[in-house]
């Protein structure tokens, strides 16, 4: 029994190897799916021209599931079946053109069709679809897993779809990548969220990243029409991206850029985008008449700040695809098209302009549209052109000045043009973006009566930035040279657009020039100025200080507005004469000398200092000095009186006094007389 089971197992493995052209899940998927006799649930065999060598092998577990109309991930493993290491390798999904004739019906040994392969290309054209995924180094006999990001078409039916893959590698000893190995895997497309066993998204390692066009169909429009579309933009990182700006790269090369280029705004400000948040970036683009059919890669640069008031980092570049149905494709009418359809005139928008060129919300403007009969030999007559502006909340963004929105033209010969002029007023409450005007054409051709067509043009509307300031507080409003004062006020954004990089600059001859950065101010919000100004020179005028408030719009264009404030600056107070305090004990003579030398300025500081020290202290010192002088004078007067008395007495004889006494008396008398003379 054991030997029999062993033989069955070997036969099973051999069969699996021989069926290498079919997905390795051809057996497991049937076991995973609920058992049923419905053959439609069976994974179809893939009949194709894949490489039958064993250099590269695609390994999958459960059949990958993708969600119709959503962004999905196909997880597969690439195996190096050789005995040589691969230094580098990469894989990518084949483009739609490579599906043509690749998956064909085949016959079995009896000549019967075994299975018809559903070779519909299941993916939207995105930049990630054309991406070459770098797998890197793969050792001999080893494998590496890679996740392929795809956007699945919305109009698919549930079922199995083939996915053609290209693989390239470089082994040791090879100078470059080897040729493209072709392999096919089967995927299951369903309308509900897929429950894949593989990881749909690897953990983000980048703080901020962006993905364009996820979970949406490729926008499509005919030439000479306006393509209105919203482009999905997702923050794939784990941090908030601040002040996100999406810039469309323009090109005059019609093979790369199918849209008309005018003075409109092609940049979009999306404010802040949180981690894993998806926003819609709106566009309204007029397609050139001469644009050919095909998918066009539109390149974008995404600028952002990692911190709320930080600097803009290096922009992220990505590509979004649009599809244009050009004249070459439209003119290929079907075989059952009526003769009248072939003989109908074709009236297009040749060009248009506005006066003024920049349309501001709430202002009047004149629209001039040049309509052209693009037919080579068919005349259009009895033409009625009706202008229908786009409406927001059931109100048209543009209203006509005279109430009429129609223009009648008698006829347009082949190749002839007519300029239509209409006067409009834009809504004051219109948001800053482009708005469509649909021009309906009703006309007759010789063999086609009462034709009705529509063409669209897009007109960008600008909101004029507006701001005002709160009360400007200056504390103090009078300072000396070398001192500082504090200035505070608010800047209110009273408009409907963001004011970017707001800054207040202070200028006057009396102060040192200074700048105060405020940052971005959203509509209805206030930014605050709080700064210190340094006085450098006395005020020579009325004390006005100029305040220049500058800001940028969404295109980086700088605008300025001026305000004024009052600040009086005086000379600095001198502290000369402070050293005179040390000489106060020398008496009034020091003060007299100071006065004679023009030192009147020395007295004031002395009195001020005396007052600061205390009036009582000064009085005590002065009284002590005065008392000392008075005592000395009283003693001198007493001595003088005694000497006067002695001089008035009778003279003594030599008999009465000794010789020494006589000399002493004479000396005192002489000294007294000398003092009196003085």
Task: Describe what this molecule looks like in 3D.
Mean pLDDT is about 75; it is low at about 15-40, about 195-205, about 330-340, about 575-605, about 610-615, about 615-620 and about 650-655. The strands form ten sheets. The chain has a five-stranded mixed β-sheet, with no helix packed on it. A five-stranded mixed β-sheet has the order 10-16-15-12-13. A five-stranded mixed β-sheet has the order 18-27-26-20-24, with no helix packed on it. It is built from eight helices and 37 strands. It has five domains: about 15-190, Immunoglobulin-like (Sandwich); about 210-330, Immunoglobulins (Immunoglobulin-like, Sandwich); about 340-460, Immunoglobulin-like, CATH 2.60.40; about 465-570, Immunoglobulins (Immunoglobulin-like); about 630-675, no CATH class. The chain is of the alpha+beta class and about 675 residues long.
């Amino acid at each position: 029994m054991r030997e029999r089971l062993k033989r069955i197992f070997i036969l099973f493995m051999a069969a699996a190897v021989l069926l290498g052209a079919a997905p390795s899940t051809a057996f497991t998927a049937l076991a995973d799916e609920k058992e049923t006799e419905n053959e439609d649930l069976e994974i179809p065999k893939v009949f194709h021209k894949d490489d039958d060598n064993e250099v590269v092998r695609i390994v999958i577990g459960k059949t990958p599931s993708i969600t119709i109309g959503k962004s999905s991930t196909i997880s597969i493993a690439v195996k190096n079946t050789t005995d040589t290491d691969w230094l580098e390798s990469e894989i990518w999904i084949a483009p739609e053109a490579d599906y043509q004739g690749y998956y064909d019906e085949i016959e079995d040994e009896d000549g019967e069709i075994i299975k018809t392969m559903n070779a519909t290309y299941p993916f939207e054209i995105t930049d990630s679809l054309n991406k070459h995924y770098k797998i890197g180094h793969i050792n001999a006999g080893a494998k590496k897993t890679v996740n392929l990001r795809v956007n699945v078409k919305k109009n698919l039916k549930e079922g199995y779809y083939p996915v053609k893959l290209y693989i390239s590698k470089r082994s040791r000893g090879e100078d470059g990548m080897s040729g493209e190995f072709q392999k096919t895997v089967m995927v299951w497309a369903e309308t509900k969220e897929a429950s894949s066993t593989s990881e749909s998204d690897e953990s983000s390692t980048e703080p901020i990243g962006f993905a364009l066009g996820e979970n949406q169909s490729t926008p499509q429009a005919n030439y000479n029409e306006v393509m209105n579309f919203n482009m999905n933009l997702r923050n794939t990182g784990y941090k908030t991206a601040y002040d996100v700006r999406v810039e469309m790269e323009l090109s005059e090369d019609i093979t790369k850029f199918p849209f008309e280029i005018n003075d409109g705004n092609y940049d979009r400000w999306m404010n802040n985008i949180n981690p894993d948040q998806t926003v819609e970036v709106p566009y309204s683009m007029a397609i050139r008449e001469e644009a050919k059919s095909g998918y066009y890669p539109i390149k974008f640069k995404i600028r952002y700040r990692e911190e709320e008031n930080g600097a803009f980092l290096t922009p992220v570049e990505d590509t979004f695809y649009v599809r244009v149905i050009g004249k070459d494709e439209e003119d290929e009418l079907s075989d059952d098209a009526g003769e009248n359809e072939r003989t109908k005139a074709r009236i297009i928008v040749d060009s248009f302009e506005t006066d003024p060129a920049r349309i501001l919300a709430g202002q009047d403007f004149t629209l001039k549209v040049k309509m052209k009969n693009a037919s080579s030999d068919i005349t259009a007559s009895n033409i009625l052109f009706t202008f229908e502006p786009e409406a927001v909340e059931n109100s048209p963004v543009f209203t006509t000045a005279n109430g009429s929105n129609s223009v009648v033209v008698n006829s347009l010969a082949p190749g002839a043009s007519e300029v239509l002029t209409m006067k409009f007023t834009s809504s004051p409450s219109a948001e800053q973006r482009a708005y469509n005007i649909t021009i309906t054409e009703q006309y007759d051709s010789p063999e086609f009566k009462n034709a009705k067509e529509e063409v669209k043009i897009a007109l960008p509307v600008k909101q004029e930035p507006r701001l005002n300031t709160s009360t400007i507080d200056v504390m103090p409003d009078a300072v000396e040279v070398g001192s500082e004062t504090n200035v505070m006020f608010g800047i209110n954004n009273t408009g409907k657009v963001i004011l970017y990089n707001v800054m207040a600059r202070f200028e006057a001859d009396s102060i040192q020039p200074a700048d105060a950065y405020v940052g971005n101010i959203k509509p209805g919000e206030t930014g605050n100025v709080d700064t210190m100004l340094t006085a450098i020179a006395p005020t020579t005028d009325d004390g006005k200080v100029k305040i220049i408030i500058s800001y940028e719009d969404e295109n980086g264009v700088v605008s300025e507005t001026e305000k004024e404030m009052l600040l009086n600056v005086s000379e600095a107070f001198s502290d000369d004469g402070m050293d005179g305090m040390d000489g106060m004990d020398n008496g009034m003579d020091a003060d007299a000398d100071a006065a004679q030398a023009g030192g009147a300025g020395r007295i004031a500081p002395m009195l001020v200092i005396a007052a600061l020290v205390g009036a009582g202290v000064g009085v005590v010192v002065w009284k002590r000095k005065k008392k000392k002088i008075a005592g000395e004078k009283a003693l001198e007067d007493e001595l003088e009186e005694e000497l006067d008395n002695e001089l008035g007495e009778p003279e003594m004889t030599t008999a009465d006094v000794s010789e020494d006494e006589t000399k002493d008396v004479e000396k005192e008398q002489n000294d007294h007389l000398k003092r009196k003379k003085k």
